Amino acid sequence: MKLLVVEDEVKTGEYLRQGLVESGFIVDLTNNGLDGYHRAMTEDYDLIILDVMLPDISGWKIVQSLREGQKDTQIILLTAMGSVEDKVKGFNLGADDYLVKPFSFAELLARIKSLLRRNVPQVNLHQLTMADLVMDLPKRTVTRAGKRIDLTNKEFLLLEYFLRYQGEVLPRSLIASQVWDMNFDSDTNVIDVAVRRLRNKIDATFEPKLIHTVRGMGYKLDIIAEEKI
Predict the structure, then answer these.
(1) Are 16 and 43 in contact (CB under 8 A)?
(2) For the OmpR/PhoB-type domain, which residue ranges apply (predicted)?
């Protein structure tokens, strides 16, 4: 996968480039908007990470120009402006995701993988599985070791999200935006409570445990227990 990073802060740009390269991506880095726009228009990328506040041309204008130029490359906007109005503006212009600075690299990586997976065809559209856990999507049923597990609608959606991204650390903010369609507030424990209730139903009386907490980062669904850090 080939990514383009457009970031005028040199240290931030190099940090992102290095982290993404170490994560297995091919990365081009530009430090100004005009070069970034030119590359985005003339080269093929799987995803663009675009700073909004650039010295020569704003990220807003770049997104708008790319979409008007029929470029459908997925775009994540990076900005210190985190108001609802700013986020709505970004999405209306054609951005696919919006991450407010400061952010953790783990969250950015999770969001990148989430967007890239949208373009990967699903092998099985009817069932999602891990170990002896089976989710039947058309029937909206969940079983573990053959035993039926009753879930609320939100619990079903949360488990479906875990199953689709099994093995990956999912930050609370990403879970909030993808499952609850809301911005994560660090002062609320909505996500933790929901995960705890789901864990009680999925893991309490079964082995191996599947839902794991990764301290300081989020949660993951995995057969092998995650070492807590």
Answers:
(1) no
(2) 125-223
